[in-house]
Specification:
heterodimer, A: mainly alpha, globular, B: mainly alpha, 0% strand
Chain lengths: 193, 189
């Protein structure tokens, strides 16, 4: 293992500890206190132009929702191809690092569109989602996904040829599962409340 | 024609399984979630292929290789979407068959399928070495743009089906009523 690889592992362990701390926060009384403190923010969100548009015009909300779905589809495609390559399932004849770099650009752009459209939608139904447990699970999954993608997966994949292949495979499987959780909890928001 | 579609939908609606599926909170939502989440596999792969043709994704990977390698997972995704889509229709046949957005979605699906067929034909007849270029030849690029537009509209119509803006029960204008397939004197759902 190279020095670079060792550094990556150290940082990954720190991020994993941070994620465990976030999980502990999510399951403790501190979360309830923070939740009460966030109510004014959600009430304000409904009064913003996004909130007013989302509540007033159903077609605007549905159109933004469709773009949210399209962005999630592209994000899913980028994640599946990048992780599928790490697992040796797709584009095996193309160097892994090349696929990772090019998929990462698509991932970032689709994430930006998904987050932006997601904020618009959240403003339109802020007082509803505030009380939905599944919304907070989605936020937790999204936070874990972003931290994992940028601070665990990306540094490890940058050293894809030095890191043990089993570690890379585990990272790829975890990445697919995390982003599936983000999409699934998001879908379930529509069925709740 | 609309009367015939309406009678078939009414017949489907008499099936016990249709009612059971519609009234099952978890089963219906599981099927709908699977339908939507499979977008990440089917459309995800399709978008990557289309964007590769436009030179916006994986520009250093041969375009033919991207299209061939991602074709299988994409088709698996579309198969799941067709099965779950049929089940969703079976659960609510009358209202869905009379949804203007569902009808537009079906037309767009046919357009997307024809475009995909033409796209593959063009790919087979394209001159050798085309797939190493950053951007595909104009014919394939046009096919990729049409594919992106068709699928964006299909997703949009799919979202709009959930809304009752032009439902027959809302007494739409005669033009919309004809397009949506409303039948005079029909039982409202």
């Amino acid at each position: 293992m190279s020095d670079a690889g060792g550094f990556v592992y150290k940082r990954s362990v720190l991020v994993l500890l941070a994620m465990i701390a976030a999980l502990w926060f999510a399951l403790s009384d501190l979360r309830v206190e923070a939740w009460h403190g966030l109510l004014p923010l959600f009430e304000w969100m409904e009064t913003t132009p996004f909130g007013v548009i989302g509540k007033t015009w159903g077609w605007a909300f549905a159109t933004v929702e469709a773009f949210h779905l399209l962005a999630m589809a592209l994000l899913g495609g980028a994640v599946l191809v990048a992780d599928g390559r790490l697992l040796g399932l797709v584009l095996r004849e193309t160097p892994a690092r090349q696929v990772q770099e090019q998929c990462h650009t698509l991932f970032v752009w689709s994430l930006v569109v998904a987050v932006f459209t997601g904020i618009f939608m959240a403003c339109g139904v802020a007082s509803k989602i505030y009380y939905l447990e599944v919304f907070w699970y989605k936020m937790l999954a999204l936070s874990v996904g972003v931290v994992f993608a940028f601070f665990v997966r990306r540094p490890l994949v940058a050293h894809v040829y030095q890191v043990p292949s089993n570690t890379i495979r585990l990272v790829a499987i975890a990445s697919v599962m995390i982003w599936f959780s983000v999409a699934a909890t998001g879908r379930w928001i529509g069925f709740s409340g | 024609m609309n009367e015939l579609i309406h009678s078939v939908a009414l017949w489907l609606d008499t099936h016990g399984w249709s009612t059971a599926l519609h009234e099952s909170y978890y089963m219906y939502n599981w099927i709908e979630s699977t339908h939507v989440l499979t977008l990440m596999l089917s459309l995800g792969m399709l978008f990557l292929i289309d964007l590769r043709m436009l030179g916006l994704a994986l520009p250093n990977v041969p375009a033919r290789s991207v299209a061939q390698r991602l074709n299988v997972p994409m088709l698996v995704g579309f198969t799941v979407m067709i099965i779950t889509g049929l089940l969703l229709f079976y659960a609510i046949p009358v209202r869905t068959s009379q949804s203007l957005w569902f009808r537009i979605k079906l037309v767009l699906l046919v357009c997307a399928a024809l475009n995909a067929f033409a796209f593959h034909r063009r790919m087979k007849t394209a001159p050798a070495g085309w797939d190493l270029a950053r951007r595909a030849p104009p014919g394939l690029r046009l096919g990729a743009v049409l594919s992106l537009v068709f699928w964006a509209l299909i997703v949009l119509c799919g979202r709009f089906i959930a809304y009752d803006w032009f439902d027959c029960s809302g007494e739409p204008s005669p033009f919309i009523a004809t397009l949506a397939g409303c039948v005079p004197g029909q039982t409202q759902f």
